[in-house]
Amino acid sequence: MTVIHYLKRKFFPLLTCLIIHIIRLFTSCFRTVEKLKWQKQLLHIINQSEDEKIALAVDVSTDDYSIETISNIISLFNTVKEETPLLLADYKIRDITNTKEAKNITFHTHGRASYTEALEWGQERGLEKLFYITDVTGHFWEDLKIDYEVIWLIPDKFKPLVPFGKTLNLV
């Protein structure tokens, strides 16, 4: 047996195993970067809005989505722009607080949502931008006119059609 044959027999399986582990490591790192994609986008948008009058609204008509993710988003807003107004609504406004005071949010399971009151609230407060965590399956009043930007934060993979504003999927 030649030295080359011996080395192939002894080290080729080890080299193959090492290459497989390196590929898995790079794949895992890529997935982590992909998972952080929406967080980076959201942070960028919030930072761009630092000097604007903004608010965060949360659709509490369902508990189908990660409460931890929603809590983390509220914390992110509070870190970047402390005491951002926070509106909790389903088919009506349930609570108005701020991101610093938000503690235990009550989510309902009826699934009925209407965005009219929350959007009118933003209009009355002279908002420049409203971030709305929702699946956008609720009701829109067709004649509603708003003159501020709405960023729909969708806690799912699907991309719903929105009547105005921009969407950002939180997955």
SSE map:
Blueprint: H1 3-35, H2 37-48, E1 54-59, H3 67-80, E2 85-89, E3 93-98, H4 116-124, E4 129-133, E5 149-154, E6 166-169
Parallel strand pairs: 1-2, 1-4, 4-5, 5-6
Antiparallel strand pairs: 2-3
Short summary of the structure?
By secondary structure, the chain is α/β, with parallel strands linked by helices.
Structural overview:
This protein is an alpha/beta fold and 171 residues long. The chain contains 4 helices and 6 strands. The protein has a 6-stranded mixed sheet, with helices on both faces. A hairpin with a 3-residue loop joins β2 and β3. The longest helix is centred in the first third of the chain and has 33 residues, at 3-35. It starts with a helix and ends with a strand.
Order of helices and strands: HHEHEEHEEE
DSSP strand tally: 6
Low-pLDDT stretches: 29-33
Structural class: alpha/beta
The Cα radius of gyration reads 23 Å
Share of residues in helices = 25-40%
Largest sheet: 6 strands, mixed
Can you tag this structure with a few keywords?
171 residues, alpha/beta, 6-stranded mixed β-sheet, 19% strand
